[in-house]
Write a structure and sequence with these properties.
12 helices; four-stranded mixed sheet
């Protein structure tokens, strides 16, 4: 009996490794036979008090929808985005990224498409994919399913990192638009799609449902790195599972509330459609989805005009969505 008789094909894994080496030229000097190698002195020489920021995350059940609809091209942006956007809440510059790809049966065409998109997303985020792991797990994962996890390390000056104590009464909240659902709420989305038997070709505002629901997560890391270099940021939140209330609450202290005006930003039509199709209460929508806002920063009111000028000069879309008042660490949507 051979290893491949148990469902594991080593030659396929080796072919995937060679493919990654071909498409990931930036990481050639970093990848060793067993571990990635990073020379840190050149990285930290321009920092007074360098601090490393780390995050790990996955894509979740958005993968299942992508497999069902055969639209895997941008999953790497979801994986990288979930990680680099987390450390972007400290304004950290992402340095390097690793991935873990697990599947019941390694299908090279699918794996190559996903790995290519991870490499592309890393390049766009300004970091490099320095290694990873591919595992065939027959019996643990079924029906050619796969899952993928990512790990990122970034760097920031210690005194640039915001903490809840910095958030003060009178501060202003600025929201940055999402590209859609990003990677959250897809167990609910898939239930709606399956129960209503929705076609991936249903059109909403000249885009198909497939294009809308599988749009790649927006990468905020480069923008936030620049913002943190030019402004004092009192708080920053990546809006993921738990929605705006659940994530924004994490960066408030117990002496303030954040009050947000729901009418202050443009909400993509897909959120109203999901609420209609699934008969989802409004409060539940805000607790599950980002509702069109993927990232929020909190700044001093006196910095607002300069911030608006800075963002407009960069061509960045943003919304002034709320303010900080006296309170008890709560998020209030009006």
């Amino acid at each position: 009996m051979l290893y491949k008789d148990s469902g594991v094909n080593i030659s396929h894994a080796e072919k995937l490794v060679e493919f990654i080496k071909r498409i990931n030229k930036r990481a050639e000097k970093n990848i060793g036979p067993f571990a990635a190698e990073i020379e840190i002195l050149d990285i930290i020489k321009n920092y007074k008090n360098p601090t490393l920021l780390m995050s790990t995350d996955g894509i979740g059940t958005k993968i299942d929808l992508a497999l069902e609809w055969n639209y895997l091209d941008f999953l790497g942006y979801d994986l990288v985005g979930m990680c680099v956007n987390d450390i972007a809440t400290a304004g950290a510059r992402p340095l390097f990224f690793l991935d873990y790809y697990a599947t019941s049966k390694l299908q090279l065409e699918i794996a190559q498409k996903v790995l290519q998109s991870i490499v592309n997303a890393c390049e766009d985020a300004g970091c490099v994919l320095v290694g990873g792991e591919t595992a065939e797990l027959p019996g643990l994962l079924l029906n050619s399913r796969f899952d993928v996890a990512g790990f990122v390390v970034g760097i920031q000056e210690k005194d640039k990192i915001p903490y809840p104590e910095k958030v003060k009464i009178g501060n202003i909240l600025i929201g940055f638009p999402s590209t859609g659902l990003h990677s959250n709420g897809y167990s609910l989305v898939r239930k709606i799609v399956n129960e209503l038997n929705l076609s991936p070709e249903v059109r909403i505002d000249n885009r198909t449902l497939k294009e809308i629901l599988l749009a790649p997560t927006k990468l905020y890391s480069n923008l936030m790195s620049d913002i943190f270099q030019n402004f004092e940021i009192h708080g920053a939140a990546h809006i993921t599972g738990g929605g705006i209330p659940g994530n924004l609450r994490r960066i408030l202290n117990q002496e303030v509330n954040a009050v947000l005006n729901r009418e202050s930003w443009e909400m993509p039509p897909i959120f109203n459609k999901l609420a209609e199709w699934g008969k989802i209460p409004e409060e539940e929508m805000y607790n599950v989805f980002n509702m069109g806002i993927g990232f929020i920063i909190i700044i001093d009111k006196n910095a607002l005009r300069d911030m608006e000028t800075f963002l407009r000069e960069r061509g960045e879309k943003f919304f002034v969505i709320g303010e900080v008042i006296k309170g008890k660490g709560e998020v209030i949507l009006i």
